[in-house]
Design goal:
Layout: H1 8-17, H2 19-31, H3 39-67, H4 75-81, H5 83-86, H6 90-115, H7 126-133, E1 141-146, E2 151-159, E3 170-180, E4 188-190, E5 194-198, E6 202-208
Antiparallel strand pairs: 1-2, 1-6, 2-3, 3-4, 3-5
């Protein structure tokens, strides 16, 4: 049965051991679609990642201990003698402990970087699909019809990466900006540098993607597996 630590030292040790999992979660949150999992799922992800990466680190340490017994701490003596072995060897034990922890955090960081661009479809919003998944790294031209009948168009600069399609989020467009007032017949270019559009006011959104190079043997205007919409 899992028992929470009741001393300050035990609490600090628990937090330190969970650092790899925290590293994984923080990197994923900054570089992927923002999800809002339950506290149970998030805690489970932190614990699982920490245990998995630390198990790999300890396995490599065990292999190193078997290959180079003289260059690694004697875990058997540490278990049998406790402080009798730890006190005279505290410097080496501290360096090895810190190294294994950093290695575990590095594994968690690598795992987060390798999986940041492949979120599950259930954890992405329509905005994420249109602005990131289909053409990552591009800033497409976006036109928005607003609820009052007006129209605004510009280059997508920033968008809310929340996985929930909520109305309380904003889309930032930058020049060249085009605006059509409610009831007007034509849209006109405006000299503004940027515009912030509330998702709550958007009725319809149009997105124009940059022209991609057509691979040899593929007819222009067709959609290949894994690609987004292609303008004919």
């Amino acid at each position: 049965m899992f028992v929470l630590p009741t001393t300050g030292v035990g609490l600090v040790l628990l937090v330190v051991l969970l650092l790899p999992g925290l590293t994984f979660i923080l990197v994923r949150e900054r570089r992927s679609s923002e999800r809002r999992p339950s506290a149970f799922r998030e805690t489970g992800a932190v614990v699982f990642c920490s245990v998995a990466t630390e198990a790999v680190a300890l396995s490599l340490f065990a292999a190193g201990r078997w290959l180079l017994p003289g260059a690694t701490p004697d875990v058997g003596r540490l278990v049998r003698e406790g402080s009798g072995y730890a006190i005279p060897h505290y410097v080496g034990l501290a360096w090895w402990g810190a190294g294994l922890l950093l290695f575990s955090c590095g594994l968690a960081l690598l795992a987060a970087l390798l999986t940041r661009d492949v979120p599950h479809p259930s954890a992405t919003s329509a905005w994420w699909v249109m602005f990131h998944q289909w053409f990552p790294g591009e800033n497409p031209l976006v036109g928005c019809v607003l609820e009052d009948g007006s129209y605004v168009q510009g280059r997508q600069a920033s968008f809310n990466v929340s996985a929930d399609d909520l109305p309380d989020r904003d889309l930032v467009l930058v020049e060249p900006l085009v605006y059509r007032a409610p009831g007007a017949a034509d849209a006109v270019a405006v000299p503004w540098g940027a515009a912030c559009v509330s998702a709550r006011r958007i009725v319809t959104m149009f997105v124009a993607y940059p022209e991609a190079a057509t691979p040899e043997g593929v007819v222009a205007g067709t959609v290949t597996p894994g690609s987004g919409p292609v303008s004919a």
